[in-house]
Design a protein that fits this description.
Elements: H1 3-24, H2 31-61, H3 67-74, H4 76-103, H5 113-119, H6 122-142, H7 151-183, H8 189-194
Helix pairs in contact: 1-2, 1-3, 1-6, 2-3, 2-4, 3-6, 4-6, 5-7, 6-7
Amino acid sequence: MDGHLIVLLPVAGVWLAAGVLADRLPRPHRASALHRRTGWLLALTLTGLGLTTAVLAAGLQSAGAGTVDRAAAGLALAAAPALLVAAWTVRRVRRLRIGAGVLVTAPDAPAPHGLRAAAAHPLVGLPLQVTGLATVPGLLSATGLDLFAGPGTTGAAVTVGVLGVVAIGVRHALRHSRLSERALPERPASAQAAGPLHV
């Protein structure tokens, strides 16, 4: 096993695990479960950011073609989405954890739809999952399978990647919208009946 593959495996594993957990984050119906999952997600996210930053910084400081340089090159594609995670996702997950933490004093307290909608926000799951997917080409290249070997394969890989990101984003947006609608207070029947009469 190549040295840079050994470096890339834990980084990619952390990001992919964070992406899977972020996808399941809005599912718990209990505040305690949501609070616990946000803690795990925050730990995975900070670990992924720390590992990615360390590998990229070591690659910048090294001036050769060694193990660290090849590992940093394999993470180059993940650098931009990891930056978005640091800018947007970490803050949202922290706020979500604080919000769920207020309710954990009652062990069976339900997770409000508003909190679940916040957990389903595209800026929580999408950057994490895109970062996880962006580590895959580096892993495949480290194993000897180069997705960008030829012009035809490069175009196909980029197209599949873009379509995958769009599909993930649409899925998150639809789920967030559905949970946000549930979080809205229900109007009385009289107000619903009179609603269309108002201009």
